[in-house]
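Onboarding guide, step 5: your first structure request.
Type a short instruction followed by the sequence, for example:

Predict the 3D structure of this protein.
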Amino acid sequence: MIQSPTAVLLPTVPTAATAAAAAAAPSIAHGPSAEPTRVLARFEDWARRSPQAPAVIDSTRTWTYQDLDAAAVRVAAALGDRVRPGDLVGVCLDRSAALVVAAVALARIGAVYLPLGPRPGERRTQAVTEDLDVACLIGDPDVLPGAHRGGEQVPLPLPTEGVNAPATAVAAFTDTVCGNRRAPRGSLYAVLTSGSTGRPKAVAVAEPSLSVALDWYRAETGLAPGDRQSLLIGVAFDPHLLELWAALTSGAALVPAPDDTRWDSSVLTDWWREAALTHAVAATPTVEPLLDRPWPQGLKLRHLVVGGDRMRRRPGADVTATVHNAYGPAEATVLTTAHTMRGTDPEAGDRTPPPIGTALPGVTLVVTDEEGRPVARGEEGELRVGGHCLALGYLDPELTARRFTAPPQEAELPAVDRLYRTGDRVRMNADDSLDFLGRRDDQVKISGVRIEPVEVEAAFEQDPRVRTAVVTVLRDSSGHGRLVAHVRAADGADPAPGELLDAVRAWLPEQAVPAGVRIVDGFPLDANGKVDRPALAALARSEAPQTHRTGTAGAPADADADATATERLVLTTVRDLLGRPGAGLADNFTDAGGTSIIAARLLAAVEAETGVRLRAPELLRSPDLRTFAALVEQRRTPRPEGA
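The system replies with C-alpha cells like these:
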C-alpha cells in the first residue's frame, strides 16, 4: 500500500555534482514493494460481510452484494459443464448489471473473461473465433454473429433491467470450428489489442496481476463501502476491469453509465452529479474539454483517474477532485504509472503536459536504447516494463517471445525476469517520473485507443474491390488525430468511398474507422522504395477526404454564401474538427466521419459561441448539418410573446 511519509525532510539545494550524478544514473526505477492478493475472494468476503450493501446502482434499481452473488451462482449453474476452467468466453454485453454478473460468474467458474463489447462487428468476431478457442459468446442473441445465432443457445438468468441491459441473454455455442489458441493457465481475463499482423491479438492477464493494480487503486483513492464508482469505460477496453473489480473488492457500489455520457462532456458531468459518484475513470479526450471551462459545481467526485492519451494540460485550481494522470498498456494490466494532481498544487492550471507519473507498486520501469540497454536519466528511449503488473503474455507464443524479453544484465534489476517492450518513447526524470514523448512505431492513438494502421489497412484489403490500402493519421492544432485511408482499387473496380467505409465497420472498433477515404491511382515512394506516408498525409491535408455521402463535400467556398451565421459557425467547426474543408450543410455528421469524441467537441464549441447547450442525441438525430444548425438557432432565438 502507498502511504504518506511521516518524517519531514528539509529540501536540499542540488549542486552541479549531484545534478551530474543524477544525469549519469541509468533510467531504471522501481515502485514500492507489493504482494499479490485475491480478487474474487475479496468480492465474496464483502458479499458475506455486507450482503445488503448496494453493489450495482442505476437509475431504476439497486442490486445488493447478495443479489449479485446469487445471480452469479445461477449463471454459473446455467453454463454447467459446457464452460470449464480455462475456457475463453466472449462477452458481448454493455456496461450494465448483466455485465457485472457475467464477470463474477466466469471468475467463479475459472473461465477466462474476454470482453468484446455489445456490438463487436460480425467479421471482427469471426476473426477472433478463427484464431482463438472461444467456448461460447454471451450476449443478446439479436446482436450476436450469424454463426452463433444459428447454433445452440442456452438462456442465462442475467439481469435484463437497468442501464444498457440486454433484452435477453444467452450463451451461444456454434458448431463452426474455432481456433486452437487457448489462454495460458491461470488467466483471469483476456483483452484484444490492435494487431500489427492485421488481425486483433489477445493478451491474457492473471488474477495476481490485476490484484496489484486494484490494491493501488483502493489505497490511492480510499474507495470504500458507501462510495460510488463509475462503470464508464467501453467494455472492449481493459480499464473497465479496473472500474468493475475496484468497486466489488472494496464494498463500494458500481454505477453503469448511460450511453450518451460518452458523447458529451456536459452530459458526463451531469451524470456524475446525479449519480452522486465519488470515484470515476475516464478517457483523457473525454475529460480534456472539462478542463477548458469552469469545473462543475455540486459534485461529490473525489478521485478521477484519466488515461488512454497524452494529457495536454494540468487541472485548474477550481478542480475539486484529485486527478490521476495514468498510463499503462493492456500488456501491463491496465496501468503502470500515475501522476497525482490537485487544485491546490502550485502548478495547477499550467498549460503544459504533466508527466505520466512514477511506477506503481510492484512495477519496474526501464528506459532503453535500440539494443535494450538502459539510457541515462534525461535521455529519450523506449519504455520497458516489468514486475507484478505484467500480463501472462499473448495467446500467440511467438508474439509473446518477441515483446516480452529478458532484462539487460544490470545490478539494478536483480529480481526482474522479463520486460515488456511498450514501443512508447519516454524520458525518465531525476525524481523517477516519466515524460511521454510518443510512439516508436507506426501505432497511433485515436480517441484514447491504440490503433495499428496495418490492421485498418487489412480490413480494407478484405474487400475484393481493393488492391491496396494505406492509412495515415492527421492531427489538428490541438494534437487530436483522425485516420484517412488511401485506397488503390482492384483492376476493373470503381468502389465508392462510402461503401468501403460501410464494409470495414464490421471489422473495426469505432475509433479505428477512418474519417475519410481517398481513392488513388498509386502511392508516392520514398528513397528506399517504401510508401511515403508523410507525402500521403500532406495530400490528404490539401483536399477533403471523401465519405459515403456526396452532400456538398468538395463544393467551392462560395457555396456557403447564403448560409446564416449559425450555419457558418457549425460548418466552420465541423470542417476544423473533421479536417474536411469541403464539408457542407447537406452532410450528415456521422456519415462525414463524426465520432463520439468529435461530437463532444462540436457540442462544446457551439455552447461556447452561442450559449446553447444541446445533447448528443439531438446532433445524431439531425439528418444533416443544416437541420442541426436550425435547432441551434431555434434554441438561441427567444420566441415572441404569444408564439
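Each response can be followed by summary notes, for example: Residues 53 and 125 are 37 Å apart (CA to CA).
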